């Protein structure tokens, strides 16, 4: 039996006050933009994934809420013939940690933007990006970085080459490590190896501002990804003029985290020197069709537990008066 | 140490012995006096950048947790540990094979034919993956050092271990019966540090690559 050290943090005065403050401020921001709160049950009886905290309630195996998006999608697909366009949430999710230092109970605030099939998604993506841009200010972060990616930049070339299943997972894992040499190893002998390695090198060549998109031109799949590039350029053109001070916008072409879930644009919020992203989101248009509803969806989640840890370890990154070592 | 001190993790042992001389005269040359001492945190020629000397098996943990922002480690260790790290480059040096080795005269076919095969190894994950590919089953005997002794003393039928020149195998009367994979030194980075501060880490990563791959 493996030895595990699950982490169930108790929040003492300073952290508890910070959590309450951030939760209220973020939910206020979302409410001001028309997002209405839904609060799915803490105990879920649906299909239970690996990693959830499970227990028996009589004869029924149930799980603690492990993911707000999945829980809300279930509620919406079951109970709403027409989806509410804007939904927000706040609370805790419970997941067994992949790394021993991660917490089991994690506090989150987030939102879902849901649209009927066929409606243009560009305005909704822009709306979510603008909301994420406002979040560092609400949290009192002195500076932050917003990474913009697109899951389709990897997904579509793999599909076009007929690469699915385990081989696709290995390619994605190599890209997640940002290791083009691993992509080469994984695809050794495959007819599309040279093309996909060149594509991986193009995706990994830059991690910078808007000029990064130019790297796509060197990819063998530049034509295939024309529409994604156009969408990213449009988003950048809209966001750059309204970028708040102390927020840097970077294009990350090799963002493959959550590729089995995301289908289009992705956004991740970092603070300089933070070890983990502080918020993440994107478009996941296959979620509701999988539940029998022809709806498109996108959203993001602010990881408050990571922010609480960061406030403890790096109070210098925050401007809030309550975030200093003397207030722990 | 302050937040502004950037730490790079170097492996002790064979890989470390190869890489330290390659950095002489570069901005990341290690302080010679500190190297002679028993200190494990060594200043470099670049102010604000220090090197941690760590055991290879511990190194990925320091980088994954963000304590060290960059590190150099063998791909065999990376594959065994499967930590959440970025792997920025194959540095090429420290190249060796991960091989199945048995006493001279024992063939792969003879090992395959054994009803209860016992393999001693420091690399259980890579060994399990190979067994699965070969549709074989075996009892794995986990060891952390001197695996060459296992077949000689009857602890196992064969070993899975790293082979560089083959000198150690020869000295123990062992031969390679199959190559399971290849390993070399890799430049790794902490995901958070690299993605949130590429402007700070990328020049250092490039200096290391220049010194170790092209140098």
SSE order and pairing:
The complex is a heterodimer of chains A (328) and B (215).
Chain A: H1 13-32, E1 36-37, E2 43-44, E3 54-57, E4 60-64, H2 68-79, E5 86-94, E6 105-116, H3 122-139, E7 144-150, H4 152-160, H5 165-176, H6 180-186, H7 193-203, H8 226-239, E8 247-251, E9 265-270, E10 279-283, E11 295-303, H9 304-313
Parallel strand pairs in A: 1-5, 7-8
Antiparallel strand pairs in A: 2-4, 3-4, 5-6, 6-11, 7-9, 9-10, 10-11
Chain B: E1 6-11, H1 14-22, H2 32-36, E2 41-43, E3 49-54, H3 59-64, E4 70-74, H4 75-81, E5 85-90, E6 96-103, H5 108-112, E7 118-121, H6 124-133, E8 139-142, H7 149-152, E9 158-163, H8 167-171, E10 174-183, E11 185-190, H9 191-196, H10 198-214
Parallel strand pairs in B: 1-3, 1-4, 7-8, 7-9
Antiparallel strand pairs in B: 2-3, 4-11, 5-11, 6-9, 6-10
The counted number of beta strands of chain B is 11
Binned, the helix content of chain B reads 25-40%
Q: Sheet bearing the most strands of chain B, described?
A: 6 strands, mixed
Q: Strand order, main sheet of chain B: write it out.
A: 2-3-1-4-11-5
How many domains in all of chain A? 2
